[in-house]
Records
---
Amino acid sequence: MAEAVSLWRREATFLTAMLASETGIVGLNTLFKAATSKGLNSYSFLGYSYLLASLLLLPSHLFSNRSRSLPPLSFSILCKIGLLGLVGSTYVITSYIGVKYSNPTLASAISNITPALTFILAVIFRLFSSTNH
C-alpha cells in the first residue's frame, strides 16, 4: 500500500511539473506579445527572461541530493554544451519572432508538437527500441 502511494506521489509530481511548465510557456508567449507590442525589443525580453530563469534556478542545487563530485570537463563535452546552447537559443529566438508576427495562441498550439517531434527524432536516431523494457 505504501508503494502505491509513493508511485502516486511521484506521478503527481511529474504531472504538476508538466502543468507548471506549460503554464509558464503560455504565460511567457502572452507576456512577450504584450511587451513587444508596447515597443520592447525582443532580444531585451529574451535577456530579461533568461536572467529571471537563472535567478530562480540558482538555488536549486542546494536542494539536490546528488554527489558533489563532477566528471572531468573534456573538449567533447564543452562542444556538446555549446551546440546544445546554440540550438536551444535559436529555437527560442525563432519562436519569439514567430509570436511577434502572429499570436500567442498559435505559438502555444505549435509548442504541443514538440513531444511528437522529439519521439520521431528518437526513432530516427535509434534512441528508442521496442526491445528495451
---
Amino acid sequence: MQRDLRLIGVGRRYGIRGPWVLRGVDLTIAPATLTRMEGANGTGKSTLLRLLARLDTPTEGRVTGRPRTAYVPERFPSALPFTALGYLTHLGTVHGLSRTTARRTAGTWLERFGAGAHADTPMARLSKGSSQKVAVAQALLGEPELLVLDEAWTGLDAAARAELERAVAERTAAGGAVVFVDHDPRRLAGAPDATYTVRDGGLERRTGGGSSPAGPLAQVTVQGPAGGALPPDATRTVTTAEEPTPGSYRLAVPASHSDVLLRALLTARPPWHVVSVTPPSDDDPPSADLGSRP
C-alpha cells in the first residue's frame, strides 16, 4: 500500500430517511497488517467491508487512500459466461498482466486451492465450493495491496481453508493489508494486529491486540550472510527474533505462518540457510499476545 487507508467520521444509511447502518466510524488500515471485524448478524460488517473496498460510498464522512484492492463477497456470482480458467485469465489481463502470464498465474491459484481439475469447467456448472475457490483466486492473482474478505472461507474444504490462511499470511508478509470477517472465532486466531467489533452502528476496538491468544509457536534457526539482516518479509512474519551470533537467528513464528517464513528465507537473494525447524508440540501452552507485528 502506498499509504494508510482511512475512514474519517464515516456514516452509511440506505435511503434519505433510512436508519443509519454505520455512523461516526474512524478507522485506519495500515500496510502489512491483518484486521478482523466481528459483530452480530445485521450490525453492518458487510457494509463496512464494502466501504473499505470502495464498492460503496459513505453517506457522510470520507475515505482517504487508494490501495489496489481485491474483494471476496459472502456470495460470489458464479453464473458467468466463462470457464474457471478463462474467467481468471480475463481478470488477470484487467490487472495489467499479459495474457500468457495471466493464464499461468490463474492456473497456479486454481491448483493451490485444489480446483485445477475444474479449470475448463463453465462457471455456471461449478459447485458452491469450487465457485468459492475461484472467488478467492480472483482476489489473489493481482497481488492486491488491500485484500477484503467477507466470510471468504465459507464453502471451502479443509485444505482450501488452510491454503487461504497461508495466502493471507503471504499478503501481509509482502506488505499488503488484509481485512476479514469470519463466523469461526478460531479463524486466524492470534494472528490479527487488531480486532474490531461492529456494534450499534459504531466500531469498538478490542484491547490486547489479536482476536485471541495465539497458538503454539514453531522455532526456526537460520543462518544468513555475514552482516546480513533478515529479509523484510521474514521480519513481518515472526513473533520474536534473537541473534546469538552475527547472521545467526533463532526465530519464533505462529505455526500458520511458518511456511511463509521459510519461503521468504529460501527465496531471498542470497538465500538463507535453514538450520532447524522445531514444530510446536500439542501440549505447548499458548503464546503471549502478539500485538502488532513489526
---
Amino acid sequence: MTKTEQATHPFDQNASVGKLLFLAIISAALCSFGPMCVFAPVPLAIAFLLYGRLITFALGAVTAGLLWTAALTVPGFPTYVVALYVMTFFVAIMISETIYRNISPVKGLIFSGLIVVTILGSVLIGIDKISPITLKGEISSSVSTVLNQLKKQKQTSSEISGEEERAFDEFVNKPEALTNEIYSSLPLIVFVFSYLGLWVSLYVTLRNSIVWRSKVLYNYNLKDLTNFKVPEFFVYPLILSLVLWVGADYGLPPGSEVIGRNLLYSLGVFYLFQGFGVYNDFLKYLKIGGFIKTMFIAFTFILANKFLAILGIFDLWFDFRRFFTNKKKDEGDTI
C-alpha cells in the first residue's frame, strides 16, 4: 500500500480506533490537571494529523458534549473543564492546520497566537459587559476568598512570626490593591499564557513528529522553531516599556506603569522563546541529552524563565550560538 493510500485509510495498524479514543481521553484528562493543561492540545493535534479533520472534529464535538453533560449532571464536576477543553480543541486545530498547510512553525505561532489573544480578549470583554457582576468584581470575590483562607491557615499555624507576620498581614489586608494589580495585568496574562501555551504544544507536537510524519508532508522540523529570532526592531518597544514602567516613579502619569508592565512582559515572551533556543543549543554543545536534558530544560523553563528571557535579549547583540561549534541535526533532537 502506498503512502497516499495509507493517508486515505486512517484506521490502520498505526492509527487504530483505540488510539484515537486514548488521545481524546488524555486531552480531556489534562484539562483538569491545572498546569498540565498546557499539554492538552498535543493529543488532539496528533489526532488531527493521524485521522484527518472530519473524524477528529466529530470526536471533539462528542467529547465536548459528554463533558458538558457531566458538568450538568455530576455533582462537583468542574465546569471550567468544558471551556478549557473547547479552547484546547481550537488550539489543536491551529497547530494541525499549521502543519497541514506547510506553514513555518514560527509564522504559525505568531498568527495563531494573535487569533487566540483576540478570541480570549473578546470573551473577557463580553463577560465584563454582559455579566451582572463585572470582571473586576469576579476577581475581587476570588481574591477575598483566597485571602480569607490564608488568614484562617495563619491562625492555626505557629510558624509565621516577627517580620514575616507583618509582611503577611500587610499582604492579606489589602485585597483591593491585589485586585487592581490582577485586573490591570489581564492583557499581559492573556497574551503571555496564549503564546506560551501555543509554543509548548507546537514544540511537543514537532518533537513527536515521528508519530505523524508518515501521514502528513511537512517541510519544517523542531529546529525551525527553536531557532526563533526576535526582529531587531523589537528593541525599541522594549526600551519604551522600560521607560514607561520606571518613569511612573519620576513624573509620568500613573497609568504609564501599567502600560509599561504589560508591554514589557508581552515582549518578554518572545525573548523567552529566543533564549530557550540558545539554551537548547548550549546543552547540545555540552553533549547533554536524553532524560537529563529534559530535566534541565523543565526546571530552567519553570524556575528561571526570566533568565531565559534576558538571555534572549542579550543574544541580539552577542549571538551566543556562534560560540557553539557542535554541528548536530535537530530533527531528532533529544530532550
